[in-house]
Amino acid sequence: MQDCIFCKIISGEIPSSKVYEDEYVYAFNDINPMAPVHILVIPKTHISNVMDVNSENSDIIAHIFEAIAVIAKQQKLEKGFRVVSNCNEYAGQTVFHLHFHILGGRRLSMEMA
Ligand code: AMP
Ligand code: ZN
Q1: Is residue 24 in some structural domain?
Q2: At 13, which CATH number?
Q3: d(CA 52, CA 69)
Q4: 3, 21, 53, 62: least buried by Cβ within 10 Å?
């Protein structure tokens, strides 16, 4: 999708620090980390956010979570981590290409919202 920074990261037009890639999924370090490990996991196809997931494209969500399990092991996050996807204004979504934050590397705040 034109003008989507995460599509540009997937195409290589914008540089990123890659941590994982397969046919369907790309993962890279967040530019503004909120925890010692802060990785974004995104589908290679453009989906705006969780509200645009449907029966046509939900296979990719299962695949993303398989990738998250692989990444969590690679990053040695066995003690625990959090997966977050912000959707729309009230959740503070700033990039409208579906992404899952992996946050870990220390004990996380118990505050969820
Ligand atoms: P959200 O607020 O959930 O939409 O998250 C967007 C995330 O993308 C933020 O944590 C940003 O720090 C991150 N981000 C924005 N631009 C880049 C970039 N070029 N490379 C890596 N992370 C980015
Ligand atoms: Zn996109």
Answers
A1: yes
A2: 3.30.428.10
A3: 23
A4: 3
Structural domain contains residue 97: no
In the residue annotation, 101 being an active-site residue is answered as no
**Domain region containing 69:** 5-84
Total count of domains within the chain: 1
Average pLDDT over residues 86-105: 98
What is the rounded radius of gyration, in angstroms, for the C-alpha atoms of the chain? 14
Residues 95, 98, 104, 107: what is their CA dihedral angle, to the nearest 10 degrees?
A: 80
Query: Which residue among 30, 101, 103 is best mutated to probe the pocket of ligand 1, counting the most ligand atoms within 8 A of its Cβ?
Result: 30
* Ligand 1 nearest atom to the CA of residue 86, by list position: 3
- Reported as a single tens digit per residue, the pLDDT across 67-78 is 999 999 999 999
pLDDT at 1 over 90: no
